Amino acid sequence: MSSPFPLPACTPGSGNLHLELLPPANPTFTTLNYTYPLKLLPSNSHTLSSPSPASSKHGHVIPKTVPLLFLLTYGGGLLSTDHITLNITLAASARLTIATQGSTKIYKPENPASHPPPLATQTLHCTLNPGSALFYAPHPTQPFADSHYAQTQIFELREGASLGMLDWVSEGRSARHESWAFGGWKGKNEVWLVSDPPRDNPTTEEREKKTKLLLRDNVVLSGPQIRARMESLGIFGTLILVGPLLQALADFMCEEFNALPRIGAKNWNAESSM
Fold it and tell me: pTM for the complete prediction?
């Protein structure tokens, strides 16, 4: 007997989020839906004590608060058959912080010897309109032994938008003596700068000219020698900071990085180094 209820519009593991600024400057989720095993949990918003100089300089509306959203999965991780797809749109001048409540576990498949091995996936697509800002700082993924995982994260930024994104992966369950023992981990991050087309119905050539790739970061960790190549590292990650709101933080991180000692760049035998 067929079900009398209509089929759901969303596929399993999919989510959609649209954040708007309603008058006078109140951020509101006009769209927030998700399906198992994905869960989107709004939390307490952060109240802005003073407007950012970068926002004032560019003439963007200053929101009163910045919402905090937790990105969760039931069971605290992904099974080998789970596929997550999340679309996020921030309206002009809207700001959002996304975090997790713990590391995302990548569970091992029931039959690790199967070929091809089952692959858990996550796809994130974010559209940041002019003056908006997204800070995406999840806990690191934690792949279990023999697990396989791949993720793709694409960010499209319009004029004056800002993005902070941390993407990192740990060695696994070190308490169980698992160190880079997973089967494979792949991550791709793309940041695009999108300009408004010169007219309402642009040609394909005009649309391509208004889209510029700022960054493409691909990380592939696979093969039997992952642990040896990681040189005793317990975690590996990428930090991306783009836009006027995060310029000061980006400058600070670059200064700290440049201050780190480099092999061959300093004479450690000199008295000033002692």
Answer: 0.86
Are 80 and 147 spatial neighbours (Cβ–Cβ below 8 Å)?
Answer: yes
User: For 166-217, how does the pLDDT look when each residue is reduced to its tens digit (9 = 90+)?
Assistant: 999 999 999 999 999 999 999 999 999 998 765 566 676 666 657 899 999 9
CA gap 86, 117 in Å, rounded: 24
**Nearest CA among 173, 58, 155 for reference residue 106:** 173
Residue 94 vs residues 26, 52, 270: alpha-carbon distances, Å: 9, 13, 52
Listed in sequence order, the DSSP H helices in the chain are 53-58, 204-209, 226-229, 247-259
Instruction: Provide the residue type at 130 as one letter.
Output: P
Alpha-carbon distance of 39 to 100, in angstroms, equals 11
Percentages (nearest 5) of helix, strand, coil residues in the chain: 15, 45, 40
Which residues 6+ apart lie within 8 Å of 11 measured at CB? 35, 85
Question: Tokens 């300093």 sit at which residue?
Answer: 266
